[in-house]
Amino acid sequence: MAKPDELVFAPLGGVGEIGMNLSIYGLGNRQQRSWLAVDLGVSFGDEEHLPGIDLIMPDISFLEKERKNLMGLVLTHAHEDHFGAIIDLWPRLKCPIYATQFSAALFEAKCAAERNAPKIPVTVVPSGGRVDIGPFNVEFIPVAHSIPEAHALAIHTEAGIVLHTGDWKIDPTPTLGKPTDEKRLRELGEEGVLALIGDSTNAVRDGRSPSEAEVAQTIINLVKSAKGRVAVTTFASNVARIKAVADAAKAADREVVVVGRAMERVVQVARETGFLDGVQNFRSPEVYGHLPQDKVLALCTGSQGESRAALARIANDDHPEITLNRGDSVIFSSRTIPGNEKAVGAIVNNLVLQGVEVITDRDHLVHVSGHPRRDELRDMISWVKPQLLIPVHGEALHLNEHAKLARAAGVPRVLVVRNGDLVKLGPGDPGVVGEVPSGRLYKDGNILEDSKSRAVTERRRMAFSGCAFVAFAMNAQGELADDPEVDLVGIPEKNKAGEPFDDIVFDAVVATVEGLPKARRRDPDALAESVRRAVRSVINEHWGKKPPCLVHVLTV
Questions:
Q1: Checking CA distances to 551, which of 43, 52, 207, 376 falls within 20 to 30 Å?
Q2: Average pLDDT, whole number, for the chain?
Q3: Start and end of every Metallo-beta-lactamase domain (predicted)?
Q4: pTM
């Protein structure tokens, strides 16, 4: 009798970290499996540790190798950390993509805004609908989140049902879209769920996430009581928040001016897909200066301190159309993503220095998370009754707290895994049965590099200690043909004694060349290495840092 197909799961991103989500499910045996990918997202570079890196993406080398067995890629929702890597990585996979209408439309708009984006077809599945993708039958179950049409995926297979929650929360009064479908989740629990692969972002927070309706009311109160101009910044993808801001502006008899390309794009897609039906038309930035101060509200990008986004330019007073003055207000209807605190803080300080009142979620309920707190996690477990729970979408602390909560809630098996772990879900006892290649790709300008990239490592070293460039020419007799050229970048001009570093390095180069035996001087590679070592050593002696040193030897 043939052995039943084995169902496996492997996270390739988004476990032990928040961002860069990519999960894969395999059905078959060790020799031959069909694969289903869920989400393909990015996380963002950190200038301090990864200078010049714009985006970080999951390493998809395993899926490239398995390309002929990759049945499709399914999107839970259209946040960058879940779909931001598709344009760059899809050409390596060329698999079918499945998403609901809003996600597909936002992706199409993103492709249209990107230069030379490949043509990437997306199959639209209705919210609540089901689609066969190879041996997987995937059901899109509506869940509340901070973007329209977020879905948990019930992946139906011969080996059992897996519920991949994606990002979700329980919001009984969402201002837009459907609430989390408790009825359908309870039905799945009655059918029997093999495994729950669940969002852990807020597993350290007690209670329940407040509702979007409460935020909407707070924003109405704040905008109504404002005296001067008002600017609101939020995540561009949060259409419910955009609608709440529009309703607040209407209640206060203000026009909404949309500022920032990302915000304009989402507003356009939300109107096309019906999520802003009945909401007044917004105005373009050109009219901002012509409206009375108490009749305008600027809806801006830049809640995360992005240097090129609208709010940073407004705070630096270099936006061509939008200005703020003493007595005006800025509402940050967002939370600061870890790593962005400095950039956001700089904007807040610049606004305060201009006399602008800054309102954040520290003062008022102007933002709520789109992720479940501990009581909501318990609800999901009680509805779905999984045999196995695997926490994902979180750092180590979040995963461990989610795991402890699941054990206390009576889940029979709980596994904490890492990116690259291959987990057998069933049939039989679940557990880690192997490893698949995983890692990171860096988007450096328009080039994709792996995380061992020499360019990134060297740039980090240069950011810390500058760089020394030395060039000189040697004649046939093994003598210096002319004075060496020395160029020091990012290195102090003088040492503690006030001696110029240019002179110190120049003397070290000459002394090193002249101190070498003739035979070694006639070997350009050996000569360059000797000079490189000497330059780094003398700079370290006078400065305490060893910069990279590039030596160019000419023979004449």
A1: 52
A2: 94
A3: 21-219
A4: 0.90
